[in-house]
Write a structure and sequence with these properties.
Layout (H helix, E strand, L loop, with lengths): L6 E2 L2 E2 L2 H4 L5 H13 L20 H11 L26 H28 L9 H16 L12
Antiparallel strand pairs: 1-2
This protein binds zinc ion (ZN).
């Protein structure tokens, strides 16, 4: 059970969010409170959100991978981190630009995390790997490895 504070940035935390403090909904509320204080770039919220318990192991792994993608303050590369988007120097406030990009990074990574949740929880994703199936795939691979020299390739048509 997560303990939510009574207030956040001086605002009373709504009752409905107190029991859901680690959800995206509460994260969005926190970011809104931050913006309400006339600051444009709220702190990253990804690490304050917990993955849904229903996620399968594979999507949980993907979810955590995206959560752990960090904006690099040195290079300042824009999401998703390819080279070639260095800071632009012409008349731009560097701190502001860095914060803007960090924020964009957090938003895009969060979008991916929520997409992963939707895909997995829809129950229709071929990427889902129930634990039992994973064990089956491993054993099948082991069998193939053992018999690899016995396999005769079909003769090529000439
Ligand atoms: Zn899944």
């Amino acid at each position: 059970m997560t303990t939510a504070p009574d207030t956040y940035l001086g605002q009373p935390v709504p009752e409905r969010l107190k029991t859901q403090w680690r959800t995206w909904e509460a994260a969005a509320w926190r970011q809104q409170q931050y913006r309400n204080t006339n600051r444009s770039y709220p702190p990253d919220e990804r690490f304050n959100v917990r993955p849904p318990a229903e996620l399968c192991p594979e999507h949980r792994r993907l979810w955590i991978d995206h959560r752990n993608l960090r904006f690099n303050e040195e290079t300042g590369n824009r999401w998703p981190g390819y080279d070639g988007s260095p800071f632009e120097y012409h008349g731009v406030n560097m701190d502001e630009l860095r914060e803007w990009r960090r924020c964009e990074w957090d938003e895009k990574a969060s979008e991916q995390m929520r997409l992963i949740e939707r895909v997995c929880l829809s129950g229709w994703s071929p990427q889902c790997t129930p634990v039992e199936e994973t064990a089956e795939v491993v054993s099948l691979a082991a069998v193939k490895q053992r018999s690899v020299e016995d396999v005769e390739l079909p003769a090529e048509a000439s």
